[in-house]
Each structure stands twice: as structure tokens, then as C-alpha cells.
Amino acid sequence: MSVWETLKMRFLGKRNGYDAGGGRDSDNWTPVDGRAEDINAMSRDTIRHRARDLERNADYVEASILAMERNVVGSGIRLDCKIDHPELEKKIERLWESWCHAENCDVTGRLCFCEILKIAVRRMMVDGGLLIVASYSGNKRFPLQLQIKEVDELDSSVLFHGKNQVVGGIEVNSFNKPVAYHFTVYDTFGEAGQTVRIPADRVIYLNKIKRTSQVREISGFSNVLSRLRDLNQFLNAVTVKERILACLSVFIKKINPGGMGLGRNQKTNKATGAKKQKLAPGMIMELDAGDEIQVVNPSGQASNARDMATILQRAYSAGLGLSYEATSRDMSQVNYSSARQNLLEDRESYKEWQHYLSEHLCRKVYIWWMESCVMAKSLDIPDYFTNPEKYTECKWIAKGMSWIDPVKEVNANRIAMETNQTTLQEVAAERGRDWRAILEQRAKEKQLMKELGLEESNENKGKSAGEPDDEE
Q: In 180-323, where does DSSP find H-type helix?
């Protein structure tokens, strides 16, 4: 094929190797494309404002956010040190738990670390991102405190800082790597003041990027926002219709009108002269002579409201990576198999979020915290700064997740451990527990049972979980 024929095919559109590249069904399909940051910048603020509006006013949006907060964070993400020094491990973990209280970790003293994690999940879903700045106070024991900043506080008016370009308040180098963040400082009344530049090593910017050319965040609801608005308007319309149908009203039409009826005392529109009318439960209204009643009865909304709402909710739930049951809490249309399959898929979404928070938030905050504690002499580690990796090795234990049938789960774990397919550490981590704490607590309980003469009977020893007794 010659160059001219190739250009002719491309620009005249007479032949296409893909149906999506042309054809009669694609006449009105002219997408806007380009670098991710250029595309996102055009509608980032509008999408964020609309997502926040639905967060405030749509109950099912709040239900989706709560489902993610509840299953991703729950009661928190716990620290599990992995250094070869048991006594130091316990000391670090106890000190970390003390720091996680609101008065120690938050610069405002209002949020504990668990609540900061939940706010991170919420703001990443609605706004698309959240910023956390390391602040150092006069607390001699815990100098490090976290300052939470929303993405609105990034100063988008700054375009350059030296040779570096500033994209939406984020200063990047030639490799598109953030080197600093420019924040607008607001006073008590919300008035914008000066701009403050904070180096990137003091800032954690939480945002999930989908393209490598993306610098700033985009709302997690961006691809489902239209569905959410449709569902909100549809439910409002159905609610209004049902409220009207539930109103029992009586209209009295007089043959020989006399005196001043209720109809004559109605308020009128000064511009058109029309009477203002409104249905109310138990209303009795007199009509003027010659007035007729015409009932507008919109049909269809109430009869298929459940099906339509379910379709829309399934669509936006799938876009968020969750099942319909997780966002609606409606289990009426599932059986054991389908519920378990949905639970497995939802767990993968929750685990993805847990891994993101552990890697990009907990780990970085932990390194800041360790450095501040060593410098404040809260931890006596002389060689920390010469070999920090040795002392920052750890794992993060996220919220545990139980199965629908706990007996089958326990038996499966027992068999897997007996056949060396898993370990107590892995089993405990899946349930959000520390395996060492379990063993230590069980040792204390067995010792106390022995002292009180409450040893476990021999006939029950070795009997697996869920195994019936002889009488049963």
C-alpha cells in the first residue's frame, strides 16, 4: 500500500481495521485526549466539588465510603516490628501505640492515627488525594506530629520555582518527580494569605495515579459521578411522587358559590394571576364555579423503582471495585456461593487499599517517627543513623476479615498449618492479630488454669474445631 493510499484511508475514513475506529455507530464519538495532567486539570475542581456535594447529600455515597473505611481500616493498622531484638521490638511497639493517640500524633490533638487513616481513605475516594505534612513540636517524648492538608490548599497560581516547573502547586524536576509542595496559608476567616513552600521529604501526598503523565489527583468517583447523580435524582423523583399519591385530599366544587371559600382565599401569583396550590395530607379545598380537576398521574416510577435503583447502584459499585451487597447492605438476592464470591472480590479491593496505606502512609510516617524518637532519646539506638534499615524493618497488620462460615475457616487453617502450607503468623495476620500476643496470652491463661485446677480434660485434647462429641 502506497503512502498516499495509507493517508487517504486514515483521513477519509473509508476503511478501518477496527469497528471502534469508525463506522456509523461512531459518528458522534470524538473523545478528548492528551497528557493525563492536561485532561484532568480541565475538570478536576468541578468533579471534586460535585463529589463533595454527593458526599454531603446522598446517603448511598456515604454508605460506600463507610464500607471502605470499615473494611480497609476498621480499628486500625497495627505495627509488627521485624528486628532481631525481642526486648527492643516490644519497646518500639509500645512506644508506637502511645504515639498513635490523638494528643501525640495530630498537630491539632483531635485525630488519633486510626482516624487519620480513615480520613485518608475518605478523602482519596471523594477528593482524589490528601496531603500529610511532618511537623515537629516541643514535645520532648514525641516531637513528631502530623498536619493534615486537603488538596484545595495547594497553590495552583505558582507556575515556576527557579528552573523547576510547578504543576498545580506541586514542584517537579525534569523527571516529573515532586521536589516540593506549595501551599496557600489561610487565616481564621478563610482568607488566602501567603504561599509556603515545603520540601517533598516532609510531605506525604496520597493519590492513586492511573497514568504516568499524571501529577495531581482526580476524584475516585470521577468515572461513576454521572451514575450517582442519576440515582440521586431518580430516587428524589420517586419519593415526591409517592408522597403525592399518599396524600388524601378532598376538593369541593360548589354549584351556587356563596361567601368566601377556601379557593378564593388562596394566594395568587402577582405576575400571572394564577392561584398557588399545594397538596397536603387531609387537605379540604373549595373550588370556584367552573373550575375542573385534572389529575396528573405519572406512572411507572414506583413500579420499577427497585429495579432501576438496583441497576444504577450495581453500576457505580462495580466502578468503585465493590459489590452491590457491600454498598447497599442488601443481602436478599444472594445465596451462600454468590455471597462468598462477592466477599472474595471485595476483599481484594480492600487488600489493595490496605497495601497502599501501609506502603505510602504507615511506612513513611514510621520512618519519620523513628528518627524523631532516636533524636529525642525516647529510643536508645546509638547506631540508628548508620544503619536505619536494620531498625525500620517491619510489617503492618491490617484489619482482619472473617469468613461467612467460621467453623470451616478454622478447620481449613488447622489443616494448612499441620501440612506446613501456612504459619500461625499468616493466619493471625489475616484476622488482624499478632501471633506473639496470641501465644503469650494463651500461655498466661494455661498457667492460670493450672494454678486454679482447671486444666483441659484429656478427652477434649486434640479434638479438632467443629468435631462433634460422642454423644452428638
A: 225-245, 305-319
